[in-house]
Amino acid sequence: MASAGIPAAPTQPALPSGLAVFKTIPYAFILPEILCGTWVWILVAATSVSFPLLQGWVMYVSLSSCLISLLLLISYIFGFHKNSETWKVLDSLYHGATAILYLSAAVLQANATITSESGPNSPLYYQLNSAASFFAFITTFLYILHAFSIYYQ
Fold first, then answer.
1. Which pLDDT band, with edges at 50, 70 and 90, does 4 fall under?
2. Is residue 68 within 8 Å of 74, Cβ to Cβ?
3. Domain ranges of the chain
4. Coil, strand or helix: which one is 109?
5. pLDDT value at 37 more than 90
6. Span 47-59, mean pLDDT?
7. Rounded to 5 degrees, what angle do the CA atoms 76, 77, 83 make?
8. What Gene Ontology terms for biological process does this UniProt record contain (predicted)?
9. What is the rounded average pLDDT of the residues 92-121?
């Protein structure tokens, strides 16, 4: 007899590799994360870095997460994951932790923006700091979206 009443086991979607990475929704966030994160550390580096402890953390978080996300993107493109389920867990944990770190960096950059309002060359540095704060919050949002979309996939 055929198994007419037994439902089929749910299948997990395959992890993309190659250019299909840019077409699937959780993994398509990686490139915008890298680009916005690159803008954060370029804009912070263009300022006078009046607050080295605050903006040093912002630079560390943005640069390290940009490099790790780039390595993750390269590993997805070349298919190093071999469709393993642990890559989804690794990806979700990495993007969740990085979202928390980026949120702390974005808040510190916003604080540096507020305190850089007065002083020499304040209009230029204020604009650069506010742009860096904007991109830091956008990057935080992208990391949160990636973490939740891979978790609920």
1. low
2. no
3. 42-152
4. helix
5. yes
6. 85
7. 45
8. myelination
9. 89
Please provide the size of the chain in residues.
153
What does the alpha-carbon distance between residue 77 and residue 56 come to, in Å, rounded to a whole number?
Answer: 31
C-alpha dihedral over 29, 33, 34, 38, to 10 degrees? 160
Round to whole Å and give the CA distance between 145 and 126.
29
pLDDT band at 150 (very low <50, low <70, confident <90, very high): confident
- For residue 76, what are its two tokens? 């997805």
Whether residue 21 has pLDDT greater than 60 = yes
Determine the Cα–Cα distance for residues 76 and 68; give it in Å rounded to an integer. 12
Half-sphere exposure at residue 105, Cβ-oriented, CA atoms within 13 angstroms:
30
H, E, C per residue of 27-94: HHHHHHHHHHHHHHHHHHHHCCCCCHHHHHHHHHHHHHHHHHHHHHHHHHHCCCCCCCHHHHHHHHHH
* pTM of the shown model: 0.84
- Residue 5, amino acid: G
Amino acid at 81: H
Residue that the structure tokens 């680009």 belong to = 35
Q: How many helices (H) and strands (E) does the chain have?
A: 4, 0
